[in-house]
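User: Reviewer 2 asked us to show a designed sequence for the structure in our supplementary figure. I'm pasting the structure tokens here. Could you produce the per-position amino acids so we can include them in the response letter?
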């Protein structure tokens, strides 16, 4: 029998394996291919040519990127799941499941009976590429990340669905002084959660589990997190010695079924396939010739502030610091905006150390000649830097950017700022920032998007950007997420596109994402006439050119586009007109010290993950808190209807006015139970049942039910239900009541009154996916509360059949339940009225939180209501106002009760000068994709601001804070303008 060669070509690596007749490993290699998979395979085979030349061999290719190579070379191919299964069955019999993580793919293979495989679809969150991205973000190598993770003390919740979400979770932790060791372990935990939640899809991982693939082979920290999370012992967690090459070994085993060929002939076929190219979709060039580029440069370079020689200048100066998500920017200016000193650099996960070093340098340059009269700070790290260095003011970044833009173009009516992973767009009306758009969850239109590709192709960002300027055939890569784009770029490379064409294509793609996904512009006129672009990404001339081409108009890019936040902060410091700045002086900097340690606040159920920053002289700054209680101050108790409703509903458990003799009925406290609980509590207690509510939602409760969640894309409120019903089973209730409800009560304000499909039918999904429910009676009948007489008749029959309760008694309980529900609705409306009266008596602004009833759950909203009231607002909810407007036709089909309430509340807010709306949206909510656009349209047409807060299972309130503070700044600006 001849030698067998298996080649596993993955998304980022090539593995080559040679087996002898006894299945003994003679050769193995594991190499990154940097998108040149064919060339890498050929090089590896050439390195063993002297051993195999002239021999008859059997060769098979496998792997996610292997099929194209196999086809082009005419070499046999075997699907990777079969290859992996072949190796596992040969070397590790009795395996129950395989978890394999690759560069861009993750899969779980279940053995036992038929082979079943689950694989990540369109998202590379939780794979090797994700870990690479996170290591880059933290400015460490992957091996250093691994070493750090082994020294962790606590785990932060981090999203791993996508590198983008994860960055926005990690960045605030780092910016607020979180330890790198804890973040490193949290990244690995996110990978574990993503794999378990995303791929098991309700099937339990148990028995003997084999871990394969590069990341699990090389990273001990990742292994540790998997073993701990799945609670495996040494017998059940198997990490094979050649786990990184296992699919290659499997391919070599499968080669036994294929024909022999001379080794040299196979190598020749592979060598010839290297030049095989397909078709590429291209676009017109950015610049047709160098002369056009020169004219473009001349126009943009004219927009620059005066340069002032810091070594010759004498007088006053003002400092602006922008502690951004990935970079720190600083600007020292003169009274007329002249630049004395600027700084722009990655913050390397430690903004405090960077600012310290730069302040020392600034004081050295200033000597006795220049006096700093004011210092202001903006950006993600604003609070930390302001407290560390005793800056005079902090301002929200939207205002800082507007200050700077207005300095260059007083008529500015639209500002777009594209940073490393965030994008901010502000419309300016009548001299105030009027509406704010931030990229919700995707950074595919941001700078880190291009940077990721530049690094993957072996360039730094500046070189890579220049390559595309004069490319004649930019590749059309579409406007998609970073991970999808990865496969588009790889495909373009396979099809023979040059790096120049790819660079230009990516710049165009960034712009398309910004214009059509974030701004959602129908035309250039939607943006404005006087557009100022800023942010480091616009230093990239290719992106700037693509933006102008897409809009069909010229825009203003100041030469200091990358430091506009810092420049705007410096202008704000100047406008404070202080005699003396409180900024730490050169002497104080010499003794400056900073340490950070993690802590958990246990003063309420939020259990905020805090970072305690300690500075020299015993100064302390706490970050991560959502209220003032950890600071030793009492929580600001402004009227808050979300809180009022939550407490009122949580009290609806126990025996009520009944005796509880008929047993204990469990009600899961989630989704529409936040709407219908007053009804069911009255109904069951009147029938002498004791009502047992599931515990308050928490991260722990979510993890309890996580293994039974079949869909990773459903909203977080729905995912929580799995933990709620399991907790009720554990509580030993006699039955769990969770009916299906296609319709809600008809309030006469919409075209219909449906519940959304998730709310309506989730009980059926739980019945099919939560094995624990077999241990109790799970009652999930279809009920229609909106038809009173019909409901009364049907429920009476059902209670008679199920619990042998006389029909007359049930009918009376149903009537009492309707009265209780009406009383609850009346109470919410009356309390709303009182809160509004309180706000007006105390001259306080009112925020109307428009969302679903279950958005009042603190685990779902992450304490957003506390944050809003801490800024001095009174908070009411949409259901306290929706009845004040009648029915009105909408542009969209208005058939969902909860949405109808939001539309009506928004219409009412448009008639009230002291109210603004904040809309709460859950990630993964299909119906809200329509609602958000309709809400924006109602509010903007009514002259109001539109603020949307997206919430999921991760509690990073950084972006929420920016939105709320930006809303406050816009309200203040309007007040000054109108007052």
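Assistant: Here is a per-position design you can include in the supplement:
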């Amino acid at each position: 029998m001849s030698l067998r060669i298996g080649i596993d070509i993955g998304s980022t690596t090539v593995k080559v394996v040679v087996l002898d007749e006894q299945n003994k490993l003679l050769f193995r290699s594991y190499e990154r291919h940097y998108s040149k998979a064919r060339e890498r395979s050929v090089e590896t085979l050439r390195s063993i040519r002297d051993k195999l030349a002239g021999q008859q061999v059997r060769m098979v290719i496998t792997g996610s990127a292997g099929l194209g190579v196999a086809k082009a070379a005419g070499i046999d191919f075997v699907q990777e799941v079969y290859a992996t299964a072949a190796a596992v069955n040969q070397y590790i019999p009795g395996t129950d499941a395989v978890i394999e993580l690759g560069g861009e793919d993750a899969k779980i293979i279940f053995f036992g009976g038929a082979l079943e495989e689950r694989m990540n679809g369109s998202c590379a969150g939780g794979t090797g590429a994700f870990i690479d991205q996170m290591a880059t973000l933290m400015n460490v190598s992957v091996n250093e990340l691994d070493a750090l993770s082994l020294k962790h003390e606590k785990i932060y919740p981090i999203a791993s669905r996508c590198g983008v979400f994860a960055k926005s979770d990690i960045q605030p932790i780092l910016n607020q002084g979180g330890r790198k060791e804890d973040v490193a372990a949290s990244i690995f935990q996110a990978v574990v959660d993503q794999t378990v939640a995303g791929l098991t899809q309700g099937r339990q991982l148990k028995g003997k589990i084999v871990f394969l693939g590069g990341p699990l082979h090389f990273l001990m920290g990742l292994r540790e997190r998997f073993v701990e999370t799945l609670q495996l012992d040494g017998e059940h967690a198997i990490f094979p010695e050649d786990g990184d090459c296992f699919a290659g070994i499997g391919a070599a085993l499968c080669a036994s079924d294929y024909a022999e060929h001379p080794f040299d002939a196979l190598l020749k076929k592979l060598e010839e396939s290297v030049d095989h190219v397909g078709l590429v979709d291209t676009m017109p060039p950015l610049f047709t010739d160098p002369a056009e580029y020169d004219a473009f440069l001349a126009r943009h370079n004219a927009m620059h502030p005066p340069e002032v020689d810091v070594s010759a200048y004498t007088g006053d100066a003002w400092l602006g610091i922008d502690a951004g998500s990935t970079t720190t920017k600083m600007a020292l200016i003169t009274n007329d905006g002249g630049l004395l000193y600027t700084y722009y650099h990655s913050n390397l996960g430690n903004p405090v150390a960077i600012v310290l070093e730069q302040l020392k340098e600034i004081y050295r340059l200033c000597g006795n000649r220049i006096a700093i009269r004011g210092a202001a700070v903006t950006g993600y790290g604003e609070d930390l830097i302001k407290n560390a260095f005793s800056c005079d003011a902090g301002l929200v970044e939207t205002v800082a950017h507007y200050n700077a833009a207005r300095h260059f173009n007083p008529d500015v009516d639209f500002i777009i700022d594209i940073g490393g992973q965030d994008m901010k767009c502000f419309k300016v009306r009548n001299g105030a920032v009027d509406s704010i758009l931030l990229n919700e969850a995707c950074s595919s239109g941001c700078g880190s998007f291009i940077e990721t590709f530049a690094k993957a192709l072996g360039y730094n960002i500046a070189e890579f950007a220049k390559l595309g300027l004069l490319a004649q055939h930019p590749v059309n890569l579409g406007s998609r997420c970073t991970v999808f784009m990865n496969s588009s770029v790889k495909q373009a490379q396979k099809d023979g596109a040059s790096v120049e064409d790819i660079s230009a294509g990516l710049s165009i793609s960034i712009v398309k994402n910004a214009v059509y996904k974030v701004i959602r512009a129908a035309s250039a006129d939607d943006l404005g006439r006087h557009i100022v672009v800023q942010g480091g990404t616009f230093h990239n001339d290719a992106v700037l050119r693509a933006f102008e081409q897409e809009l069909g108009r010229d825009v203003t890019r100041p030469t200091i586009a990358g430091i506009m936040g810092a420049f705007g902060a410096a202008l704000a410091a100047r406008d404070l007109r202080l005699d003396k700045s409180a900024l730490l002086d050169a002497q104080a900097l010499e003794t400056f010290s900073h340490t950070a340690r993690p802590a958990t606040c246990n003063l309420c159920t939020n259990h905020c993950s805090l970072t305690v920053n300690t500075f020299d002289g015993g100064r302390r700054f706490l970050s991560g808190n959502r209220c003032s209680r950890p600071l030793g101050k009492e929580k600001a108790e402004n009227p808050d209807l979300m809180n009022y409703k939550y407490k009122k509903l949580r009290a609806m458990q126990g025996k009520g006015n009944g005796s509880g003799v008929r047993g204990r009925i469990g009600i899961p406290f989630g989704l529409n139970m936040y709407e219908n609980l007053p009804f069911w509590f009255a109904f069951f207690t009147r029938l002498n049942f004791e009502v047992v509510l599931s515990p308050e939602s928490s991260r722990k409760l979510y993890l309890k039910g996580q293994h039974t969640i079949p869909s990773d894309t459903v909203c977080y409120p729905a995912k929580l239900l799995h933990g709620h019903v399991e907790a009720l089973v554990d509580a030993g209730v006699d039955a769990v009541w969770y009916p299906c409800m296609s319709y809600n009560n008809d309030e006469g304000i919409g075209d219909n009154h449906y519940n959304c499909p998730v709310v309506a039918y989730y009980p059926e999904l739980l019945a099919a996916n939560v094995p624990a429910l077999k241990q109790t009676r799970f009652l999930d009948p279809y009920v229609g509360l909106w038809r009173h007489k019909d409901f009364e008749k049907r429920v009476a029959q059902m209670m008679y059949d199920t619990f042998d309760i006389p029909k007359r008694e049930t009918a009376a309980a149903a009537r009492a339940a309707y009265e209780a529900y009406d009383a609850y609705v009346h109470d919410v409306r009356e309390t709303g009225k009182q809160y509004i009266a309180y706000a007006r008596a105390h001259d306080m602004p009112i925020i109307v939180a428009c969302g679903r009833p279950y958005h009042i759950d603190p685990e779902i909203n992450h304490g957003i209501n506390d944050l809003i009231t801490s800024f001095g607002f009174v908070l009411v909810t949409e259901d306290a106002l929706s009845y004040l407007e009648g029915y009105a036709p909408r542009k969209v089909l208005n058939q969902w009760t909860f949405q109808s309430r939001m539309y009506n509340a928004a219409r009412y807010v448009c008639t009230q000068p002291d109210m603004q709306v904040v809309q709460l949206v859950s990630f993964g909510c299909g119906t809200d994709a329509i609602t958000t656009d309709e809400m924006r349209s109602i509010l903007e047409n009514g002259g109001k601001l539109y603020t949307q807060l997206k919430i999921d299972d991760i509690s990073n309130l950084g972006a929420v804070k920016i939105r709320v503070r930006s809303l406050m700044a816009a309200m203040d600006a309007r007040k000054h303008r109108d007052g």
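For the response letter, you might also mention the following. The chain has 35 helices and 30 strands. The first helix runs from residue 37 to 47.
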